[in-house]
Specification:
The complex is a heterotrimer of chains A (about 350), B (about 350) and C (about 400). Chain A has about 350 residues and is mainly alpha-helical. Helices cover about 70% and strands about 5% of the residues of chain A. The chains are: A mainly alpha (about 350), B mainly alpha (about 350), C alpha/beta (about 400). Chains in contact: A-B, A-C, B-C. The interface between B and C is large, with 66 and 70 residues.
Chain lengths: ~350, ~350, ~400
């Protein structure tokens, strides 16, 4: 699955592992549903974040461009879907038209952001992208006058769910004798999309472009000297990352049936970045792990804190909601303290780290 | 459905020629009253007194931004870390000062003394907090990948916010006004003694800090460390101490800024640090992060941009870009400045930190 | 750490996800076989039945103080309802509140909504923000659960064609027109300046006030904006000062109104200040201090001191949880409306009592509650207050049926 796996022969074990993985992925929505549909929804958001984190991974992990405004592209995709498939303008296009269009639009925004920031490095880039994210959000929040485009803070309601003919993703229906709830159907769609993005990520990583990104990440001047067109390659990173964000946004809008600017706050960008870094920058399995953990942890804490506190102290000392985010923050700090390169860094990165210890 | 109906701005100019202009509630005639003639919006709010007032507004805001920005820049200049938790340090400073002031309020001491005690305790508390942050969270990560301490900082920010929520509650807190507010009017602009105190105090602190950095041994050690840690180490500079000092001083400035914000707006909340921190960080980058003079200039500039932006851009664009885009102006200016000067207004070439 | 490990770890990961899923299974008290809309608790031999009512509001984040306030209101209602030892369908009903935190985040809102549906609650009170209320309402609707929002004012919430959405709070249109008209007709304002905080609430209300004030013959001399997280308003206030309005209206919450009032005073602006229910609270008086004197504001519902239930609510609430923020009376009423509908339907099964919610005619602590066919409160009363000597003093009430003689209940 990763770079080094190419070098080793693909053994039977690997195929078995893959088969098992597919089996587990297929089983998740049904197993999770035993604990309630809420867990299916959590799983869906986890995969949505896997999707987003992998998109950001291209920009941050591969090309080494610190992007704190990634949520802007997510917002562009979501609003694109919302405006083209809701009673707001009375347009109801099918999803297979809107999702690619949303991706293209987000891609365009990616280039728009990338172009003026090419000269910037490191933390200057971070603040500009952060500003860009805020600018997009503030425009979404205010473009209800003089012409009502986004309906402002009130958001857009009654967005069409993803529908294939009569088969709507919003309702429970029976397929091949299996009853599937709405969230479960979205789960399979999301898994399929995530698989696609993983394949693209792997292909990119080992391609000419991927190596050019890594060269820029390690030393931009040297990369340029080696004949890499750093401008185009950097723009490409922004564009690719952005289009993934755009698709994720579209699915989010369809799944929620409602979008409003508050879903696209700075905190969201920061969370996605935290997933990438916490999991292991530039390493696909690590990023997936980071996304799943950071989505699941606050939800798991929702269920876990109360019983734990009762068991330890015999009563509730601090109400669970106050503690939940506290524990979340502490987890970020502790993981970074003891696994500075992320929970599951690529072996290449690890080697770099152990060599450079000054 | 209410929000769906677009409201068309600006309102028809004819309404400004309303014949009966007698103010109903305001007995006192304002200078702008005399200007009621059919005319364009721009003229209406471009009077000198309004401009002066906006500059005063921006200056006060900018002084606070500058102090917070210094905290970011001191840390960044030395170890290249964006201390995202700095806004939270400011918040803790405000909250500690609040607690001290409230508990001393009934003691019969003069209010100014109470305020000073509150301020001193807040400063000390934040110094300890800043030192602790560096020691516990950042020092172990000094050689980690560049983004690792950034995530730690975000984690610490979440932790501090939630700790503050548990200690001081979820509600907004009234910061007790310890200074009897007096309102002065100069040239049509009104300001309070609190505002004067803020600007003067901020100026004094900045002068003091410049002295510290330029003239003392500690300052020299700091500059050396910022230039090149290895060489500084070889020259006998205690790097750990210098970095800790940067955090301690930055946090002390944060506490000071927190107390200013508290006494200026008379309100405090456990979430107040986030936006303030973000703005101050923007200011620091605008000036050239890592550069003290840049942080001061960036802070002041940002404050003034915000005030003038909210005050005038709406009129200049026929209310298309009104004050709802207030927060954007700062970022727009930032992006434009960075396009032409990629290291900020005063920044040296520190770009290779990427 | 070679490739062979990778599928293994992924598998462990998936397994752990699955395990979390399983671990939760104990949560619902009886694992019901079908994911059908919350089934009625089976007739137990004991004459007591536990009915869960869900409550959702942000308990962390910038408006957590309002969220906690809502939850406390609902908690008080549940305690009061339990104290009455209601008998429904021959069983003593014990109500239980499941309070959830949606962090004011629409995504989390849907997850907790699903969690409540899974937990088989009988009805839901919440959410606080329109942004979380609307996406969650689709989930409650599918499960057939009545949802009563105590504070979401976005008109779209009840316009989705769902029969499960209700709100006990007047929407923006009703309130905005009262404030706007009052400012012009009663206060004699000719020039009005309007500020809103760009939230769904502030924006919606400010737009309505603008319409009403214009209709009553006033000129809007300034329309300015801020955010719900801002504390410095001097730039926009200076601009407003230059336009010299008679009245300033704020569509926003008390945390914005408090510092804004102080800055209005510092800038020497003489205009009167008005605001809607978000700023019509003791909290505003606390935050603005002396600067709040003379502020005119409105609240949905009848003045508390005119209602016998209201006074008791204020006393009980203050004793138990301290200061009322804003919406806790509404969340209290929302719970009571659910309880009342169950009583009338003589069932705690949402399928059976949902139609009764629509027929509610209940004397709550905020006035008489009746719903129109969409689920909005019918003819909701709006009361205008003035702040005098640090207290909210009633000026007048508009609309709404005064708390009549106790109506005939079964």
């Amino acid at each position: 699955m990763t770079g080094e796996s190419r070098r080793s022969p693909r053994g039977l074990r690997q195929w078995l592992g893959l088969l098992l993985l597919v089996g587990v992925l297929l089983a998740v929505p049904f197993v999770a549903a035993l604990g309630g549909q809420a867990w299916v929804r959590i799983a869906n958001f986890a995969i949505l974040y896997v999707f987003l984190a992998l998109g950001l991974n291209i920009v941050v992990g591969y090309a080494g461009l610190l992007d704190l405004g990634y949520v802007a592209f997510y917002a562009v995709g979501a609003y694109c879907y919302a405006l083209l498939a809701s009673p707001h303008f009375g347009i109801h296009l099918p999803f297979w038209v809107i999702l690619p269009f949303g991706a293209a639009l987000a891609c365009l925004f990616g280039v728009l952001l990338g172009a003026p920031t090419l000269k910037l490095r490191g933390d200057y880039l971070a603040i500009v992208t952060l500003g860009f994210g805020e600018i997009i959000r503030i425009f979404m929040n205010n473009l209800n006058a003089p012409i009502n485009i986004t309906n402002g803070a009130q958001g857009i309601t009654l967005i069409d769910p993803i529908r294939i003919g009569e088969f709507s993703f919003a309702k429970t229906s029976t397929l091949f004798g299996i009853s599937l709830s709405g969230p479960q159907k979205y789960y399979f769609l999301l898994v399929a999309l995530a698989a696609l993005v993983i394949v693209i990520n792997i292909r990119l990583q080992n391609s000419r472009i991927g190596r050019a990104w890594q060269a820029i990440r390690e030393d931009e001047v040297a990369a340029k000297a080696c004949g890499i067109n750093t401008r185009n390659i950097k723009l490409l990173a922004f564009a690719m990352g952005a289009s993934f964000g755009g698709i994720a946004g579209g699915v989010f809008a369809a799944m929620q049936g409602f979008v409003s600017p508050e879903s696209f706050s700075l905190m969201e960008s920061i969370t996605i970045l935290a997933m990438v870094v916490l999991g292991g920058m530039g390493h696909i399995p690590g990023v997936i792990l980071g996304a799943v953990l950071l989505t699941g942890l606050p939800e798991a804490l929702r269920y876990g804190i109360e019983p734990v506190q009762k068991a330890v102290f015999g009563r509730m000392i601090i109400d669970p909601e106050s503690l939940r985010m506290l524990v979340f923050g502490l987890a970020l700090v502790l993981v970074m303290r003891f696994r500075p390169a992320g929970l599951w860094p690529s072996s290449l990165r690890r080697r770099e780290l152990s060599e450079v210890t000054d | 459905m209410a929000g769906a109906i677009p409201s068309v701005w600006p309102c028809p100019p004819s309404s400004f020629g309303f014949p009966d202009q007698s103010p109903v509630f305001g007995q006192q005639l304002h200078e702008s009253d005399t200007l009621v003639r059919p005319k364009r919006f721009v003229a209406e709010s471009l009077t000198m007194d309004t401009l002066l007032q906006q500059l005063v507004n921006g200056l006060t805001l900018g002084a606070v931004y500058a102090l917070v920005a210094l905290g970011y820049t001191m840390v960044y200049g030395i170890i290249g870390l964006i201390n995202f938790a700095h806004g939270e340090v400011v918040m803790i400073g405000t909250m500690v000062a609040f607690t001290v002031i409230v508990s001393l309020a009934g003691s019969g001491m003069p209010p100014l003394l109470i305020l000073t005690i509150g301020l001193l305790i807040a400063v000390v508390a934040c110094m300890v907090l800043g030192w602790g942050l560096e020691r516990v969270a950042y020092r172990p990560l000094r050689h980690a990948p560049r983004l690792t301490p950034l995530i730690t900082a975000i984690g610490m920010s979440i932790v501090l916010q939630n700790v503050a929520m548990i200690i001081w509650g979820r509600n907004y807190i009234t910061f007790p006004p310890m200074i009897d507010k007096r309102i002065y009017e100069v040239g049509g602009a009104s300001f309070t003694n609190v505002q004067v105190a803020i600007v003067v105090l901020a100026a004094l602190v900045m002068i003091g800090l410049t002295y510290l950095v330029q003239r003392t041994r500690m300052g020299m050690a700091m500059r050396a460390t910022a230039q090149n840690q290895h060489v500084a180490l070889l020259m006998g500079v205690d790097i750990d101490r210098v970095i800790a000092m940067a955090f301690i001083i930055g946090s002390a400035l944060g506490a000071l800024a927190g107390c200013m914000v508290g006494s200026y707006y008379e309100i405090a909340h456990y979430q107040m640090g986030f936006m303030l921190g973000l703005k101050a960080f923007t200011a620091a980058v605008l000036g050239g992060i890592g550069n003290m003079a840049g942080a001061m200039a960036g802070g002041l500039l940002l404050g003034i941009i915000e005030a003038l932006g909210a005050g005038y851009i709406g009129d200049l664009t026929g209310n298309f870009l009104g004050s709802h885009y207030q927060d954007i102006f700062a970022f727009m200016v930032l992006i434009i400045v960075l396009m032409f000067r990629p290291s900020g207004l005063f920044g040296e070439r520190t770009g290779d930190r990427a | 750490m070679k490739h062979a490990h990778i599928p293994g770890v992924l598998m462990a990961l998936a397994a752990s996800v699955a395990m979390i899923g399983c671990g939760k299974k104990e949560e619902p008290k009886a694992a019901a076989p079908a994911p059908a809309p919350a089934a009625a608790p089976a007739p137990a031999p004991k004459p007591e039945v536990v009915v869960k009512i869900g409550h959702v509001a942000p308990l962390t984040g910038p408006i957590a103080h309002l969220g906690k306030d809502n939850e406390n209101g609902a908690r008080l209602a549940v305690d009061d309802a339990n104290a009455k030892k209601l008998e429904i369908d021959g069983k003593i009903v014990k109500f239980e509140l499941l309070g959830e935190d949606d962090q004011a985040d629409p995504k989390t809102g849907t997850v907790v909504a699903q969690k409540l549906v899974d937990a088989k609650v009988a009805g839901v009170v919440g959410h606080l923000n329109s942004g979380t209320t609307i996406p969650a309402s689709a989930i409650y609707n599918q499960a057939g659960l009545p949802q009563i929002s105590p504070s979401a004012t976005n008109p779209k919430y009840t316009q989705q064609g769902f029969n499960t959405t209700f709100r006990v709070m007047a929407n923006d249109i009703q309130q905005g027109s009262v404030v706007g008209t009052y400012a012009v007709k009663d206060m004699g304002a000719k020039k009005v300046a309007i500020i809103d905080d760009r939230t769904a609430y502030g924006q919606g209300l400010a737009d309505e006030v603008e319409k009403a004030a214009k209709a009553a013959g006033a000129t809007i001399v300034a329309r300015e904006f801020t955010t719900d997280k801002a504390t410095d308003f001097k730039a926009i206030l200076t601009k407003i000062k230059a336009k010299n309005p008679d009245v300033i209206f704020l569509g926003g919450m008390d945390a914005v109104g408090g510092p804004m009032l102080k800055q209005i005073k510092e800038l020497g602006i003489k205009a009167k200040f008005t605001t809607g229910d978000g700023g019509c609270s003791p909290e505003l008086i606390k935050l603005a201090g002396a600067a709040s004197e003379g502020v005119i504001c409105t609240q949905a519902g009848l003045p508390v001191d005119k209602l016998p239930n209201g006074q008791k609510f204020v006393e009980d609430f203050t004793k138990k949880y301290g200061q009322i923020q804003i919406y806790s009376p509404y969340s209290y009423d929302a719970v009571m409306v659910l309880v009342d509908a169950m009583k009338r339907a003589n069932s705690v099964d949402p399928v059976k009592y949902l139609p009764e919610v629509g027929k509610t005619a209940y004397d709550g602590v905020t006035g008489k509650i009746e719903f129109d066919d969409k689920g909005d409160i019918k003819n909701g009363a709006i009361t205008v207050f003035v702040i005098q000597d640090g207290k909210l003093v009633t000026l007048k009430s508009e609309g709404g049926t005064a708390a009549a003689a106790p109506e005939a209940k079964k």
